[in-house]
Structure formats: C-alpha cells, structure tokens
C-alpha cells in the first residue's frame, strides 16, 4: 500500500480531492446536472478538477459525444484522465489557464463551472466573455458561486479559520490582514464577491434565466479530516504565508480550529451557495 503524502505535499499537489470534496463540493454536482435541459451533445466543464462532474454527466447523458474539461493543475488532469478513460473518445481534457482561455473551434450546449469562479478574481470577465462566445444559441451556462459573510477586511469563510489558526501560531489577529496583503493572498471573502456584484457582472454577458440558493454546511468528524479537506481544496494558497518549517503546525492548527467550531456550533462553516442558470444575452 502507498503511504498517504504528508500534508505539505498534499497541499502542493491539491491531492486527496475525491475524498475531501464529499464535505462540500460534491453536493453541487447533481444539483447542477439536474438543470441540464434536453439531450446535450457538447458540454464544457471549466475547472474540471479530477473529472467527477464529467464522469457523472457522461453516465447520465448518453447524448453527450463531446465532454471537454478545462483545468490548470497537471496533478488533477492526470487523475481525471484515469477516472474518465472508460468513456474513451467522448472526453477531451485540455490543460488551460482560465484567466487566459484560448478559443475553441466549437460551441457547447452546456457549460458548467462549479466552485471555481472565485479563483479567477479579479479577471472573471475574461472567462465570462469566453463562455458567451462559446455557448450555442440555445445553450445554458450553469455556474455555482459561494458567498460567505465578510468583515471590514474582506475576510470571510476559510479566511476566518486561517486567521484563528495563525493566532494559534502566535500571530495577533489584527496583523493577519497585513500579512495577507504582504504575501499577495487575496481573502476568499473578497474573491467570492457579493451576489449583487456578481449579478451585475453576469448580466453584462448573459440573461439570468433562474437562480437557486442553498446553504453549504461543512461538518467534519475530526481535526485531521478538516486539515485534509483544507489541503485538498485550498492547496498551499494560505500555507505559503507561513515559513516552511512551521507549515505542519499551521495545517494542524487549521484542523484544531475547525474541530473546536464543530464542537461549539455543530458545524464548521455554513454559507449560501448559488446556482445561476445563464442563457445567451438577448
Ligand atoms: C474547488 S476546485 C473545484 C473542482 C470541480 N469543479 C468541483 O466542483 O469539484 C477548483 C478547481 O479550479 C481549478 N482552477 C483554479 N484556478 C484555475 C485557473 N486559473 N485555470 C484553470 N483551472 C483553475 C483548480 O485547479 C481546481 O481543480
């Protein structure tokens, strides 16, 4: 049996996502796929990760002859290739930086993007106009976005857990926003934008056909489980704020803060997640 990688290696490779995504992102999958109308032939999944949405979509929609995944992380693409091999020529995985997407020679009946848009801040317009250009005339763009409450520093969601974890390492909470700025880490609470901001941005490129919202509630049965979730989801985005020798302590502290919240609140985090159903602009 291969030993599990240590948490720093895991974070660097964004590894362990199949297991970690059960805590949050997995719940978006059928929610999104249930809203695909008719029998699509072509689907693009943007930020396709380890290929789970494409895998389920290919099983659910035999009409799909071209399912294209666009993803930046080579580790994730390699895992997706393995997962999707059984679908043969119906699948195409394209290494892509979604902040600089290249044109494709065909259009999609459906474009999906789940739990990705905040990583493209502040240049989301680039991918939005790309999608608008690549959507078939009666196509649908299904997008999920998370909206944690944010404070006066633009911190929200995972930023709060990280701030508390840095406190465990001896940093005063008031110094953390400055540390983020100095390290070039934009708080996730800022990246996610408000639903109003995002609504305006989307309306420049699409007609908003419908919006659904639910609460994404994260629970975990141990500190280790949450550390694993954090490393698989956020990679070393926050970890790099800490000098390498202290990173194992940092990841451990993230798990401990989460476990305490779990005990006190019955969950670790809870935030609205939106599913936007977008059609080409009139
Ligand atoms: C939270 S995961 C979501 C994965 C999958 N869509 C899901 O819902 O489970 C975010 C994904 O976006 C990818 N990503 C982030 N920034 C990206 C970029 N600039 N270009 C392409 N992919 C990116 C990450 O590598 C990761 O696989």
Automatic annotation (TrEMBL):
GO molecular function terms noted in the UniProt entry: methyltransferase activity
Keyword rRNA-binding: no
A GO biological-process term: methylation
Keyword match Hydrolase: no
Pfam families tied to this protein: Methyltransf_12
Top-level taxon of the source organism: Bacteria
InterPro entries: Methyltransf_12, SAM-dependent_MTases_sf
Alphabetical keyword list: Methyltransferase, Transferase
Boundaries of every Methyltransferase type domain copy: 45-141
Name of the protein this chain belongs to: Class I SAM-dependent methyltransferase
